[in-house]
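Subject line: Sequence and fold of a protein, written as structure tokens
Enclosed: The protein record, placed directly beneath this head.
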Amino acid sequence: MKYKTIIDKLSNRTPTLLGHDQFSKCSVLLPLIEKDDELHVLFEVRAFHLNRQPGEICFPGGKMDPNDKNAQEAAIRETVEELGIEKTNITDVFPLDYIVSPFDTIIYPFVATIRHPHKMKPNKEEVAEIFTVPLSFFQQTEPEVYYVHFKAEPEPNFPFDKIPNGENYHWRPRKMDEHFYYYKNKVIWGLTARIIYHFIELIQKD
């Protein structure tokens, strides 16, 4: 291959995440609403008949569709479908940091304001209930943090004889932190808690 061909292929290329095409992509929306003269965060409880994570607390969101122009559009579409609101009632949409999960998924979170929340008609096929938590609760409450540890287990035919130290190779340990918030009778944890924790960090930065 000629040098110029290589330069042509790399010129003006925008780098992305290595293996990006092999990941599932999801978008979620952290909704803010005005309630009782203060800001609240809105959450969903997933319908109990769903195959995946039934009954868990989450934000509106889901897998990106091929027809979605981008991650933000996917988050808005999912929110409209799940909360039964008009797209025009979702305003001031801003991206948060995206997350690469250990489970081959990239999650794109956004925060937005929901206007006229009294008009919401949650989709019972996906949402068992909705509830809100004052934003001040998260600003004043430190979550409990626990860790999930992952162990490297090479497959049986892994070529240990081709690498230094063979079967005694020192695999780097890995852990994932899980945040937990407890509000009244609700347990907000996992990815949802991690996103709200990140959001609070951003808005409270000096």
